[in-house]
């Protein structure tokens, strides 16, 4: 990371009734860019170097832990998760109950902007974070200067599901030990990257140790997954989005298939779709230049 790029320590605020942990990169007076991470993923999955490179392109970059993960507040409502039953209920259009929905998580993000005195920001979300970003564009349109939805989905029930390998990784029980978590982390990301990325694979043990030590919350991951299923199909609502929108998706994504990216781009008026051929359900370092160029070009154009 460039030593000249300002990076704040982790801070805590009360936003929408939830204690949120966040930090920032770059000059506070630059155009704000809010990064929202995905299911069970802590804010530091947006690598420091990735954030610093975005800041170097002229943005004030803010990342935060979603509710129920990392160092942000937890809901602590017990839930039972049956992934196959959820998939079936979604396909059948049945109502699914959950302690909270993606819209509540979007309200968290909007409230975080309030606490930082940011009237509107460029919103960039990955996976579930892309869904939360979409909900912000739907329900908080005045807060969204532009939208970048990465490896995400509309929630439409007819879209293809994950590959068997990706589904198995998603449903694997959480390991009981730190060493087990580190081993499972490496196996899981090898599936999600859908290719060979030696630089990232070499970093996986240290990344896993960092996440484990910073704060896992398996029940929170279950609640976040329920939020995804309970939030339903956004296709119609996305038709009302006015924020300039870029959709980035990997051609070989094994978890949220490329059809979901195409559906997202088709749902938002005027949206542009960038398909990256060697990208799975991850942001490996080898594709950072293309992704950062795309984000910066889109946001600075608007």
Q: Could you explain how this protein is built, in words?
A:
Helices cover 42% and strands 16% of the residues. By secondary structure, the chain is of the alpha/beta class. It has one domain (11-301): Rossmann fold. It has an eight-stranded mixed β-sheet with strand order 1-2-4-3-5-6-7-8, sandwiched between helices. 46% of the residues are buried.
Tell me the CATH topology: Rossmann fold
Radius of gyration: 18 Å
- DSSP summary, beta strand count: 8
Strand content: 15-25%
- The end-to-end distance, rounded to whole angstroms, is 27 Å
As laid out across the biggest beta sheet, the strand order is 1-2-4-3-5-6-7-8
Mean pLDDT level? 95
The CATH H-level homologous superfamily: Alpha/Beta hydrolase fold, catalytic domain
Key terms:
single chain; eight-stranded mixed sheet; 302 residues; globular; Rossmann fold
Provide a quick synopsis of the model.
Helices cover 42% and strands 16% of the residues. It is of the alpha/beta class.
């Amino acid at each position: 990371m460039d030593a000249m790029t300002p990076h704040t320590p982790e801070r805590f605020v009360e936003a929408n009734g939830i204690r949120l942990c966040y930090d920032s990169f770059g000059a506070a007076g630059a155009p704000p860019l809010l990064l929202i991470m995905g299911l069970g993923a802590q804010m530091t999955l947006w690598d420091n170097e990735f954030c610093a490179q975005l800041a170097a392109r002229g943005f004030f970059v803010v990342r935060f832990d979603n509710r129920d993960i990392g160092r942000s507040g937890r809901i602590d409502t017990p839930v039972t998760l049956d992934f196959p039953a959820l998939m079936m209920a979604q396909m059948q259009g049945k109502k699914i109950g959950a302690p909270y929905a993606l819209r509540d998580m979007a309200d968290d993000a909007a409230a975080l902007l309030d606490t930082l005195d940011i009237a509107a920001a460029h919103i960039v979300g990955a996976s579930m974070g892309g869904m939360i970003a979409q909900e912000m564009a739907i329900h908080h349109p005045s807060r969204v200067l532009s939208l970048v939805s990465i490896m995400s989905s509309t929630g439409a029930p007819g879209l293809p599901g994950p590959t068997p390998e990706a589904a198995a990784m998603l449903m694997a029980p959480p390991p009981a030990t730190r060493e087990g978590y580190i081993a499972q982390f490496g196996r899981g990301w090898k599936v999600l990257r859908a290719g060979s990325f030696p630089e990232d694979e070499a970093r996986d043990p240290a990344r896993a140790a960092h996440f484990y030590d910073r704060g896992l919350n398996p029940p929170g991951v279950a609640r976040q997954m329920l939020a995804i299923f309970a939030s339903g199909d956004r296709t119609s609502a996305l038709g009302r989005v006015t924020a300039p929108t870029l959709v980035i998706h990997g051609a070989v994504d094994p978890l949220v298939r490329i059809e979901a990216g195409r559906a997202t781009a088709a749902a938002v008026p005027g949206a542009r779709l960038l398909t990256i051929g060697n990208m799975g359900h991850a942001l490996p370092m080898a594709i950072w230049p293309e992704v950062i160029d795309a984000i910066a070009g889109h946001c600075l154009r608007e």
